[in-house]
Amino acid sequence: MTISAIILIGCIVAVFIAMTRQVFGPEVGMPILALCALVIADPIDSSHAVQSGFEEFGRIAIIFTAVAMAAHQLKDSNGLKSVGMVAGQIVGLASLKLALPLRIGIPAICLGMTWLLAAIFHNTTSILITAEIAFLVCSEFNVKPAPVLNGCLVASNLGGFSTRWGDTPNLIEANVWGLQASDFIQILFINLGTLILLILFVSALLRTSTLPQAEVNIVVQGFVRARKELSINAGLIIGAGISLIVVIVPAIFYPTMEFRFVGVGMLLLCLVAKLFNSRDPHINPFNALGFETLSTLAAVFILAAVLAGDHLGITGMLTSWIKTTGGATWAILGISYIGTLFTEAASWANTASTMVYSIAPSHRGAWALGAGVCAGSSSLITAASAGILLMNQTARFPEPKDRVTFSSYLRFGITFSIIMLVYYTIVISYFV
User: Fold this and answer.
1) Which of 50, 53, 115, 278 could cross-link 159 (Cys pair, CB 3.0–4.6 Å)?
2) What are the tens digits of pLDDT across the range 159-173?
């Protein structure tokens, strides 16, 4: 490792400490780190990092904007609110009829729904949709939303890691290892075990969240009445749903035509908004993510590209270390976790996949890399694109205590990601 690499890592640690102490948020901290990285890196590496970073960012920004546009329309249609009320009814009835504690029922349905949507569609789609639902359910039952929202982020990462198309790192690893959709059934069942651990972990954080049965019944009846009175814009739901499917599903089978499908989906979303949405017509639908979210994402990808550059020597050092361990599962998990923690899931998977495959070309190597990336992307709010989206989404919540920020997520993320590392190390080492 070079002196430049040590200086850059020192800068990363310093900025992370500042964000933890709420001196500034990731929307300021990550661009600062990207600029520091460009100053410290070799001029050739800096130029390459800007080009490759923005190339990766451009793809992500277009797709995420399309997904965010659809999520906003689903919210405007009151569709998400209706689903949240149904989820609340299920939780309440389980408490009344099965004596299932709210602290277990709420995480089970919110995290389970997030995991399922991420596995079927994509983890960013899942977090944009289920965060609103989880917040509604928690608010009505007077349960702290923050632990459940934190859990939703991890559940979206787990769901994305469970299918070939669920997350960008999976697509990268599938191409390198030649994995088919059926191969992911093995890791899907492993991730179900992680999901159960996550539900129990969030439940433990909600141990003081209880309501008398009479009050639970009042909340359930309130959901029933509110659903009957809720005005739902069916045109907006159908249009946004079809557009979302056009954006996500065809690209799974025809990846070279991804941008064509995304473009068609976004045009459909604009048409649907014009025909069915009663919001202010002067609102720009393409600003669905907001400048702060986009600038944070761009900075993360540039930082990741600099860290992967030859000048710093970090990648070469990690490759040598894995070789000395003989491609041990724990070593692959460890470097994937640390690499993702300091960069971003998709960027690190792109950097490390070929390196790990050359040492461990088996399924065990692929799952170890993916599991390390999944745990790393669950450690910090900035280590996954879904985390940055969740942070932006919850910034609109009225109460600051309900918002997910870098500092509020830190303890949750680090603690559970370490649990994930231990679990994956044992399961992948002995059962794959």
Assistant:
1) 115
2) 999 998 888 888 888
